[in-house]
């Protein structure tokens, strides 16, 4: 399965989860709106019955009743007759219970003459004093009305949807769990492919020096080689060079393996002059490497062995991916209390979609997975581990055909002696 297919499957999975979440939210919302409409209808019917029961018509004419919803939690009831507070409280409780409205409510009676609510009570509180009830029952000019409020209406309706919400949460959790398993499966598959590619690269990289050593050993085992000292010396040097190359490759793999073992991986920070370290590094390269050392304070605290490996990996990586006329610049500067080190090349660059993955172990960007570009795909993974272990910051700026620039920012809590700006071009 290609990486593009994997990305498409992951995107489709995410869209599926978003679709399911949206659907669940939509149906829960619709269910809530349905409950709210049913609540409104039940309250309107119950309050109409209450109004007809508490009104005291002095004639045989029917009492006019009007129920007005001021808000989903607040209702006003108009009627053409005085209101008896005692009857109102009794019938409110009875009718709301009959209509299955089992939530707390508050109510009040309005006196049109006084221009205010003269009696108010709550289903959660005892009734007011008889004196206030008598005052409230005095006849007043029309219209008479009372108000009812349901302070916990939202919680009441939400509780009725508990089963809906619980079912939705369970479905979402199960979906998320299976999507997570699917994602892990794809990740493991990609890691397996990366490891397979790593093994292929490692086999090729190790086989080349072994083959050279075998050829040299066969030649050196011939009795006639002693008659040709120059030729013998040539093959001896070949054995030495290929042995050193083989040793370096094995050490690279072992170093990365040790860095992944947190128990065995420990830094030993010491004071290091970065400029001195870069001079030593530059001596092993040709005139394609330029030092632009502008930092006035080059001393940092770091593990010398791992820092040397990091610098070597970054420079070797820049050389490998600059196929022709390489120009590698090593730059330093001090900035905002930090020592900034930059490795800049004019190589093939890295496409934006591959940049988040190049620090993964065994990963090699498309175009790098061929044996003409040597390596195991472990260098940048190792670099990132060491940078994180030191609590530094590593950043990448790159574009296809425009080269790459790796920057390391290192905190410098202690001020160092001043140094002059230096530019050096190293030649063989």
TrEMBL record:
Nucleotide-binding in keyword set: no
Keywords: Kinase, Membrane, Phosphoprotein, Transferase, Transmembrane, Transmembrane helix
Top enzyme category: transferase
EC number: 2.7.13.3
Cited Gene3D superfamilies: 1.10.287.130, Histidine kinase-like ATPase, C-terminal domain
Catalytic activity: ATP + protein L-histidine = ADP + protein N-phospho-L-histidine
GO MF: phosphorelay sensor kinase activity
Protein name: histidine kinase
Residues passing through the membrane, by range: 164-183
Native source species: Larkinella knui
Any Pfam family: HATPase_c
Domain of life: Bacteria
Residue stretches making up the Histidine kinase domain: 201-414
